[in-house]
Design goal:
single chain; alpha/beta; 4-stranded mixed beta sheet; globular
Amino acid sequence: MVYAKITGWGKCIPPASISNDEISTIVDTNDEWISTRTGIKSRRVSHVSTAELATVASQHALACAGLAGKDIDLVLLATCTPSTMVANTASLVQKNIGAIGAAACDTNAACSGFLYALQNATAQIQAGMIKRAVVVAAERMTWYVNWAKRDSAVLFGDGAGAVVLEASEEPTGLLGTKTGCDSTDRSILHIPNYGTDMDRCAGTGPSDLSFEGREIFKRAVKGMSEACDDVLNQAQLSLEDIDVLIPHQANLRIIQAIQNRLEIADDKVMVNIDKYGNTSAATIAIALCEAVENGMIKPHANIMSAAFGAGLTWAASYLKWGERTTPIAKSDARLPDCNKTGLELVAPAVAASKAQ
């Protein structure tokens, strides 16, 4: 039996941020309103492209695994905010990390994207098609935000996280997974008039992200909880066997509802939504990296993850961690300096949103 062991991990967090107090200068809100409804205190705003975020995260993951880009057979990028549609953004990441000749592909399952991509890469390793893969999730969600709409404007942030998978005989990595999509209700979370459905005569102004929070909440809790149950049955595990829960960081209330439904203690749940907001596909990848960094993930830990996103996609995964929780090496890769605040970075988009 071949397994896809996680041997490297890395993240990329943009330096500029917008606090709740700062965002209250854009829309009619305040820190208490945002914090009590979402758990978010701040969100990051990228001054660089999605590809650059993904590149830096991948470089850190490669160094952590003790590998170079030339060792990689597949670069799989989970994103719904690609730098370019044609050519795919993964091909630019592949070029940037020196993975010449590796397959490169974008995966769009919105917030479920990292778990979808992890499943895809694992299956290719298990089938003997490849030996090593970089699975990276990167998002620039603030680019989509309509800053005139309070309910969605406060939620999203930018960032990236990555892992390296390697073929192994050790039973680690993704050992149970369930993905799906409830497309009957896809309209409750989407960006209309975008892609080739766009009215070309109307121009390409700021996107209008449609977001029905109450309906999303109900479906997210149900879909993620049921997917977790399915994965536990696959792996023949009980909830008591789970050492760490890493849920999609969309809303603290959703995280707490899933935690309560699964009856998992606070100290087993990874939460960082307060620092970053909802970074879509990147949330679980970033949270996974931070759970290793802060010692929450220990050798041989059993890890459960679940996500829910536009589509309406959903996913859950059971990961078995290996022995190592420290990097083999560290990369000096970093983003270029940013000379603007978060508010200054979004100012043009704020002006355009309010002018509509």
